[in-house]
């Protein structure tokens, strides 16, 4: 009875997505927020990227949003940021910029859908009047420990910073692990042989230098980059050190880092700046509305609402009933195009499909009560096994508390990576 009433409510509340123009209502709904959080149920679905791009373009063009922050590494995404801003040392093409994504799963950002958005951003920035702030593209994830140290040493050496010696000391501490995160995780997490003090001192030095500099002496984005890379070093060290325990802390370190990095980017653009965040649903949908809360886990959706206020954050989840997706069968495996089976009975995806087998969106903030039951909601990672999906890919969720709106595609297709994906084997 409850499920049927939810289906009927979806029929009353949902609006069809028939063309790119239909995304304007979603952008308008998020327009007054400081941060528009745009999710995805997988990292390998074309429609999720294309739909987020349509909303993002409208937020930038019509509502004054000035940066995009994504679930990607700062150094790699900086190549795209330089390209869209035509920086003096920018890559000459979007394809060249995407070579910076050389770590698995590279397809998350090195794909045709992102290439199209990046070219749009570059053209948009080119049309801005002289002196206007250009739209930026930034990675706020935590994984780039060694790459961030490399970037810092190069930058601090270039400007003759006193913090260079501390950066080199931190690098030497990690060097014994030969850029192997697992090696460092075991050494630090099990044997207490860590580099925590070195990276904490480095971040403190970089921050003191940056904030002591006179405004006319600051070198803008390069200085921001140094501080974010130092923050990555601190939080990546903590992430890998806590990872071996297998509890919630490494997850929490990562999501807290993403909020701190987001805050640095927003501060760089100014106190009234607004940005779009692209991350998985498990990051942007409020953790308190899921079973994550019982496990002691927090996420970006929860932390930003707590830090900036619920009205300053507008979270839009994305999902699908069936289709294909790019993923790997194990960590580091060759990417494949896999089949996404129909949503399980009584899941959020199943209810949306039963309410009409067409693409749609629901503005949950407008009428939340009917969507406050706890129901299964699909989440697909970069490692995926469709045969076991029923047992590990559904998160119990109160949808109206997790998101402010939801975008649903009845049938989706796989993302288009720059690196070719292996096609699914024919059915036997």
Describe the fold and architecture.
InterPro entries: Emycin_Estase, Hydrolase/PRTase-associated, UCP036794_erythomycin. One of its GO terms (biological process) is response to antibiotic. Among the domains are: 7-58 and 318-428, EreA/ChaN-like  fold; 145-246, no CATH class. It has 17 helices and 11 strands. It has helices at 2-13, 24-30, 46-63, 74-85, 94-98, 112-127, 145-159, 164-175, 181-191, 196-212, 221-243, 249-269, 281-284, 300-308, 348-354, 389-392, 399-402; strands at residues 15-16, 35-38, 67-70, 136-139, 275-278, 313-327, 336-340, 360-363, 374-378, 394-398, 405-412. Strand 6 and strand 7 form a beta hairpin. It is globular and about 65 Å long. The protein starts with a helix and ends in a 16-residue tail after the last strand.
Sequence-ordered SSE layout with sheet pairings:
Blueprint: H1 2-13, E1 15-16, H2 24-30, E2 35-38, H3 46-63, E3 67-70, H4 74-85, H5 94-98, H6 112-127, E4 136-139, H7 145-159, H8 164-175, H9 181-191, H10 196-212, H11 221-243, H12 249-269, E5 275-278, H13 281-284, H14 300-308, E6 313-327, E7 336-340, H15 348-354, E8 360-363, E9 374-378, H16 389-392, E10 394-398, H17 399-402, E11 405-412
Parallel strand pairs: 2-5, 2-6, 3-4, 3-5, 6-11
Antiparallel strand pairs: 1-8, 6-7, 8-11, 9-10
Helix pairs in contact: 2-3, 3-6, 4-6, 7-8, 7-11, 8-10, 9-11, 10-11, 11-12
């Amino acid at each position: 009875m409850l499920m049927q009433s939810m289906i009927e409510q979806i029929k009353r509340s949902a609006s069809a997505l028939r063309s790119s123009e239909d995304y304007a209502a979603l952008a308008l709904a998020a327009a007054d927020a400081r941060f528009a959080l745009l999710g995805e149920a997988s990292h390998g679905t074309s429609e999720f990227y294309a739909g987020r791009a349509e909303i993002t373009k409208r937020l930038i063009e019509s509502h004054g949003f000035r940066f995009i922050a994504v679930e990607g590494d700062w150094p790699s995404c900086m190549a795209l940021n330089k390209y869209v801003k035509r920086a003096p040392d920018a890559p000459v093409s979007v394809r060249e910029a995407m070579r910076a994504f050389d770590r698995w799963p590279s397809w998350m950002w090195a794909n045709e859908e992102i290439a199209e958005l990046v070219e749009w951003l570059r053209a948009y920035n080119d049309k801005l009047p002289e002196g206007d702030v250009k739209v930026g593209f930034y990675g706020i994830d935590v994984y780039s420990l060694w790459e961030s140290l490399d970037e810092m040493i190069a930058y601090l050496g270039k400007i003759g910073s006193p913090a260079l010696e501390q950066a080199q000391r931190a690098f030497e501490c990690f060097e014994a692990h030969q850029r192997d995160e697992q090696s460092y995780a075991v050494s630090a997490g099990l044997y207490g042989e860590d580099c925590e003090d070195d990276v904490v001192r480095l971040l403190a030095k970089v921050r003191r230098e940056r904030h002591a500099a006179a405004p006319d002496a600051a070198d803008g984005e390069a200085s921001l980059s140094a501080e974010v890379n130092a923050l990555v070093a601190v939080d990546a060290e903590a992430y890998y050190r806590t990872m071996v325990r297998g509890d919630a802390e490494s997850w929490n370190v990562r999501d807290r880092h993403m909020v701190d990095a987001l805050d640095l980017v927003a501060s760089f653009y100014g106190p009234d700046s607004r940005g779009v965040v692209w991350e998985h649903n498990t990051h942007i949908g409020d953790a308190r509305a899921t079973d994550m809360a019982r496990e002691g886990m927090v996420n970006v959706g929860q932390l930003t609402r707590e830090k900036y206020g619920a009205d300053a954050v507008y979270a839009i989840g994305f999902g699908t009933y069936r289709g294909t997706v790019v993923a790997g069968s194990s960590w580091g495996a060759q990417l494949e195009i896999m089949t996404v089976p129909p949503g399980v009975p009584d899941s959020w995806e199943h209810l949306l499909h039963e309410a009409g087998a067409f693409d749609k969106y629901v503005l949950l903030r407008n009428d939340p009560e009917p969507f406050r039951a706890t129901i299964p909601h699909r989440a697909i990672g970069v490692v995926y096994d469709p045969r076991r999906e029923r047992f590990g890919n559904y998160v119990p969720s109160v949808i109206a508390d997790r998101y402010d709106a939801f975008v649903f595609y009845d049938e989706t297709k796989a993302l288009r990576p720059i690196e070719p994906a292996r096609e699914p084997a024919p059915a036997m």
